[in-house]
């Protein structure tokens, strides 16, 4: 998500189902109080949820 991946690209990269990715993104949005993927990215940075990029 942080590299602009679509849900399908995230699912493929992590070997997960598309619905699993959608559910997890929605869960993270609720946890962070975000209303969009953009604000989720900002909240994830602020909350320290993002590790170092590996690629």
Automatic annotation (TrEMBL):
<dbReference type="GO" id="GO:0003677">
    <property type="term" value="F:DNA binding"/>
</dbReference>
<dbReference type="InterPro" id="IPR036388">
    <property type="entry name" value="WH-like_DNA-bd_sf"/>
</dbReference>
<protein>
    <recommendedName>
        <fullName>HTH luxR-type domain-containing protein</fullName>
    </recommendedName>
</protein>
<dbReference type="InterPro" id="IPR016032">
    <property type="entry name" value="Sig_transdc_resp-reg_C-effctor"/>
</dbReference>
<dbReference type="GO" id="GO:0006355">
    <property type="term" value="P:regulation of DNA-templated transcription"/>
</dbReference>
């Amino acid at each position: 998500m942080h590299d602009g991946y679509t849900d399908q690209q995230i699912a493929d990269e992590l070997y997960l189902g598309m619905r699993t990715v959608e559910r997890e993104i929605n869960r993270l949005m609720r946890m962070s109080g975000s209303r969009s993927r953009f604000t989720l990215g900002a909240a994830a940075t602020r909350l320290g949820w993002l590790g170092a990029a590996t690629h």
